[in-house]
Every structure is written in structure tokens, then in C-alpha cells.
User: What shape does this take?
Amino acid sequence: MAEAGFPVWNQRMWSARGKLLGQVARNRRPEDPRPSLTLRREDLVGILRAAATREGAQIVTGRRMSEPGDLDGPAELVIGADGMWSFTRTLLNPAAKPPRYAGVYSVSGTAATLDTAAETGVFNMIFSRGGAFVHMTAPDGTIWWNAQVADSYEPSHERLDRTSPALLADLFRDCARVESILERARVDSRTLTHVLPETPLRHDRHHVLIGDAVHPVGAGQGASMALEDAVVLARHLAAARDDRLGRGRSGASGIPDALAAFDAARQKRLRKMTVAARRNRDAKTMGPLKAHVRDLVMPIVFPRAYPAATNWLYDFDTGSLPRS
Assistant: This one.
């Protein structure tokens, strides 16, 4: 997987005027010798699909399920890992509220280098009146960027599709660095950010929701939480199977208890992650007065408070995947 991306060691936070607000280790404990890795979403998907295929998974595309298990008859277990607009979630919760717009939309792309000697391995986040702007320099000098635009009114798909580097440059015009990047930029993707009200029913006897289908946390942790879900669920299912087989009975009959145990094991951590994600979004939608206070206080507080506030993310141990 490392070959598909590049290492990012540090995270630097900046004001729109170019003031350094703080520097911390990027998505790791400071003493961890392993760097964070940045790669494109499509590359990650391809790597995970290839790994699943090697393990014997059958991947079917181009078909939509009308009810659980209808691809191959009744299913013993349906795992709803089908994203924020999950079909499985609607089956479990027909009256549940759908995702709602979170007040932020995201535009991403690449840009030609500004400086051939630009430092790689640094995640830069700039707080601006327009929202937050992230940029990193890849080893080949290309700038990878992401604009997280604060807008309380949900843009239509037509308006979102018209979002160009020039329009973004106007929104982030209080930051010369952002404007200079966008002058050389192209747009690769545009995405609305949504939040999901708490899902009343997360599992029943033969269905369970994981990942963005039940807790789309964002804050750069969506894939991490989904992968944690997968490992923890596999361990609970394997434990139920081994327990039942050890008693000379079918392993399938332990599925409901395994799903309940998995759900209970994940709730505390996921609720904490949801709160952290909300704070992350709020930091990008501050008014001028709060932003001014943030820029004054952050250089003093951030380097000291950040590790204590995030180490719980990296101290978690999912345990090993069970053997089949």
C-alpha cells in the first residue's frame, strides 16, 4: 500500500495571514516511528478490493439489491457496509431520518508546484474566512489540495459542479497562499458533507451496519473507523462460531449474540469520534470574532492540548483478524 501514496509526518495549522498556529505529528503519536500515509481514495479502494478477492470474496457490480440476500438467495448474515446512503439501513429503519447537509462542502484537486524545493511530508491546514484549505506537496512536486468551504446553505448539484478554482480563490481571497495554489489548480472532485442522525436500530438477528452506513464520522477518520468495525466484527463472529462448534452445534446460531456484542463493543469509541468530528467541523465554520480568538489562543494551547486530545485514537488495538 505504501507504494500507492507518500508519507506525511507532520501537520501544520496556519492562519490566513500566514501565522503558524501549531505543528503536531500527523495522525499518529509523536513517538511513533511509522508515518501517516496519504493516497488517493480510488487507489485505496483498488488495493482493498484486490485483497478481498485474494481471500476468496466474490465482488458483484452493476446490480442493486431489492432485498437482503437476493443475489444468491436468503443470506445467513448481511453486513451493511454500503455507505452513508445505505440501502441496508433503510431496511432496518424505514422511518429513520436521512443524512442532512453539515454546512460544509469539499472540493479537491491537484496543482502545479509553486516551489521545486517545497517540503514534502507535511499536511498544511489554513483557516480562512471561506473555511479551511488543506495542501500537501507530493514527492514529484505536485500539490494535492482540498478546500472545505463553509456554507450554511446547501448548494445544488448544478452549483457544486460549477465550483471552479477561480470561484474558490474568491472565497479564500484573504489568504495569498491559497490564491497562488488555485491559480495553477485543477478540480478532480466535489462533495457535499453530511451528518447522520443516530440510527435507532443498528442490527437485528441477521443484519448489521458498519462504517459510514451507521456512523459517517468524517474528520479524516471514516475509513479508519470502518476498518476497525470490520476487524472487531470478524473477531466477535469468529468467537461465536468457535464457541458453538466447541459445543457440537452449528456456528450460525451464535450470530445474533455476536452482532449484539459487536455493537456494544463499538459504541463508546464511536460516540467519542462523533463528538471529535463535530468539533472539527465547527472549527471550519467559525465567525470572524471566534476565528480571531482562535488565532490568538491556538499557538499557545494547540501544541500542548492536541496530543492529549487525540492519543486515544492511536492507542486503540483492534486485535488480530481470526483465522478462517
